[in-house]
Amino acid sequence: MRKWFTMCMTLLILSSLLAACGGNSSGTKTNDPAKPADNGTKTTDTKDVEIVFQSWITPNLTVAYYDSLINRFESENPGIKVKRIQPPANEGNPDSYLKSLLASGDFPDVVQNATIQMFVDADALLEIPIDDDIKKINNYEAEMINGKLYNISAIRQPQSLIFYNKKLFAEAGIESTPKTWAELEAAAEKLKAKGITPLLTAGDWTAGFTFSVMTSPDIYKDNKNWYADRFDNKVKFTDPNWIESATYYTNLVKNGYFNKGVLSIDYTAVEQEFLKGNGAMYPMGSWFSAAEANSKKDFEVGVFATPTKDGTQYLLGGENSGGYAVAKMSNHPEAALKFAKFMMLDPEAHKGILQADALFSNLKEPLKWDMSPLQTEIYELLLKNPPMVGHMNNKVGRVPVSGIQDQYNKVAQNILLGDTDVAKNMQSLDEYWDKNNK
Amino acid sequence: MNKNDRWAYTLMFSPGILIYFCFLLVPIFLLVYYSFYNWDGISPSYSFAGLSNYVEAFHDKAFGRALFVTMFITVVATLVVNILGIAFAVLLNKKGRMTNFYRSVFFFPLLLSTVSVGFIWKSILSYNGLLNNLIEQLGGERIEFFGDPNLAVLTITFLAIWQSTGFVIVIYLAGLQSIPLSLYEAVRIDGANRWQQFKHITFPMLAPAFTMSIIFMFTGSMREYDRVAVLTYGGPAGATETIAYQVVKVGFNANRLSYSASLAVYMLIIVSILAVSLTVYLRRREEKLL
Known about the structure:
The structure holds two protein chains of two kinds.
Chain A: H1 2-21, E1 49-54, H2 63-76, E2 80-85, H3 95-103, E3 110-112, H4 116-121, E4 155-158, E5 161-165, H5 166-171, H6 181-193, H7 205-220, H8 226-231, H9 240-254, H10 267-275, E6 281-284, H11 288-293, E7 301-305, E8 317-319, E9 324-326, H12 333-345, H13 347-357, E10 360-361, H14 373-383, H15 404-416, H16 422-436
Parallel strand pairs in A: 1-2, 1-3
Antiparallel strand pairs in A: 3-9, 4-8, 4-10, 5-6, 5-7
Chain B: H1 3-35, E1 37-38, E2 47-48, H2 52-58, H3 61-92, H4 99-111, H5 114-125, H6 130-137, H7 149-177, H8 181-189, H9 194-205, H10 207-222, H11 226-231, H12 243-253, H13 257-289
Antiparallel strand pairs in B: 1-2
Subcellular location (chain A): Cell membrane
Family (chain A): Belongs to the bacterial solute-binding protein 1 family.
Signal peptide (chain A): 1-19
């Protein structure tokens, strides 16, 4: 009896442990590297199905925002249930989380804000058919990979912007916003002479971002395929145009135009510094205008495009990037595609995401939302701008090698630490590229 | 041992062995396996790379720097935590109205998660933080705790010491309570002063606790990740990157899972050799002293 009891208990414990080790097999098929998934053209019944949606939660895009849209989608599409999941931490993008889900065979049916190229390379995303819905989006071809579309996005997110404190500009006698490098240097000198900190940045990712938005527009305005050309070894970071642009930035640092203790504060802190009036210019993406609209301060904020050498305006940023994508291994691709389209193209959902994150509609009939005066200024800058390309770790003809943003940060931090050897710093970007281009 | 006992032991051992096998041995095997390939951690295919990842890591300056930073934090934190641990344990090893309160105060930092502690200290030590505001009000210059490469490494080391001391105190307190009081009475009769009592009785008798604390601190510090990720993100300019931080960064940011696996294997080998050597040395020391 005792023997049988012991055997049964052993089997029970072992089976429980094995069950605990197993993954959840519902929703999507396992992504076995040895067995690439099929072409995802299965037809499935869209009734009584559950799709898993990986949402992207930020201070602006809240759980309540998603849940209200999901409730509406479910009531308009009886038979389709949406289960919302989210990464455990905001690491800038959900890629690490999605990679672990893909490895465990739990890749969601709909993903948001992922690095599309990476998951296309992993054969994990469904090709989006170009139908009348997709044709409502301006320039939807911008995000195509090898002539195929894998994400649904109709938003413009300008990033190479400099927000400025109108009161401090007036105190320093600056009458117009700088358009050229020389004008920016002159404005910074006037501000410094008045004891005002001309430029603000921080030591975390903000350092690399600031370096990139202040140097890249001059390069990419003349070559909108720069990263694709870099893959083909037609261009390098040590080319004269990059060296000149990086030298301009290094001189801004050398001349003491940036805030003191820059490497000892982070993005959250530097945003507060600007909103407290402790600096005149703050290079940042359009999302800052959402924080600005909710802040209390005794000065007005204006915005201009980061200057280029000759004064040509060329904004960099997201052009239909991110957005929603559908898993190739989804058991319910039609329902998943329907939901992804709803989240981006439904007027209420579209307006919601634009307003929450201070984005701009890229529909052929763009949706307007209640913009603050600052957001209206950004919108007007965008109207004068041709389609944008990305920068740093975003697509400029092609998505760059993974992790290049870490090397941008390193270069920018080196410059802020006083390393003014521009050629060496730019060469480190080339070295990173070559080493990681595998 | 009869047959029934064997079944009973099997029953008791099997969950532990299975967990150890699934969550430790299998991942280590996979780590070593992937380190010989070129895999980005996501693509359906990967190719054999032989020893190329190991050769590349051997010449990688950033990995060399990370190894130095990790060893610096490990050696300094292990030494200082143990010196402070013994000192505070001796001070707290007496009956008094406030003793339990002091023990709780020292142990408290360990109850907080490293990430939470990181954020708290960040708000204290950042350039616009509480401490710098105080320094400025007292007429001093603000200090760049995270902006100066050397100071940033020291700051992370200090926080590791601050958070780990409480645990080590508890280990030493347990060790102190196992020392027979008769030994102290005997040396007191022989005229030994407090320092001589510590040197000839307390410290040698603490040898098992000393071994445990040194190994605990050493292996823990070699895996330093959370504080770096919260406080400096490895910056400025990579100055505070530890091996564990670099393994994660290379594997998940640069998508070079195989290369990061080779870094992790190096780390495993280094930690194993040092930890085993330390354990053997400290066990022999225990045998000599006790």
